[in-house]
From TrEMBL:
GO terms for cellular component: membrane. Keywords: Membrane, Transmembrane, Transmembrane helix. The keyword Transmembrane applies. It comes from Pseudaquabacterium pictum. Signal peptide: none annotated. The chain crosses the membrane at residues 50-72, 79-98, 104-125, 137-157, 163-186, 198-217, 229-249, 261-278, 284-302. Residues 19-147, 169-300 form the EamA domain. This is Membrane protein.
Amino acid sequence: MPSAARPPAAALSGTAFATLLLIALMMGANHVAARLAFNHGVDVATAVMFRSGITALVVGALVLATGVPLALSSRQRRAMPAIGLLVAVQSLCLYSSVARLPVALALLAFNTYPLWTALWARVVYQHRPEPRVLRAMPVMLLGLALALDVFGAASGLGAAGQWAQIGVGVAFALAAAATFGLALVLTQHEAADLDGRLRTALTMAQVGLLAAAGVAWQGGPHLPADAAGWLGLGALTFLYGTAFTIMFTVLPRLGVVGNSAIMNVEPVFALVLAWALLGQRIAAVQVAGGLLVVATVMWLGLRRR
């Protein structure tokens, strides 16, 4: 899980910029692979269990290999179960959205999480939102409205027909954004001083265990029905785990934080990949709205603290 704390923006080297784009590409491709797996028999809980469990093992091995201190303060021990639960809910909700919406639209709706982060910081810690966030809010919501075609103009379905088609998927994406925003706020205030590698390993382990409990409750995993499904499940697990491994091994050496604004181009990569590999298409006005959301989130992410 990326850190919520961001130092002032600094100039990126070419290598750092390329690495950030690679991570964004892999994270976007992870969601496209997830949709492929869902189309071929895999259910959301099974996908989250595989993805999070293997990522926890990879990052946990990295923690042990690099000698990261394993001790947690009492405050961190209290916070980490809540953070793990929130990220588990976020993971299940986001993949549930990806299973129902074009991948790029699910990610765009999820990319409203900076607004939820500001809301939760106000509600939980009484922090006033920055003026920049307040200015960004209507712009981001306008872009999202265009991307989702909320009035059904691009689809020709009308507002009622469009929301009958996308409503559940959008609700899942917004629930993912809300829970992720709260997880970021708790991380920043309760666990920011915990090493990012250890925090991620613990969070992913909790998510994997909670997803495994859900899989057991439903009677066992829903495994792929054919080779395409296995390809999707294997790809989403490999891409997600590799992206996180790069995030915590390469980026620190390049002097780049793991949640740099550059990585918010993930929905753009997902849009292109979903079009090329899954045949998912959205109207030009929806693409324009999506680009507006991405640009606004990047503008927020590049602000100096």
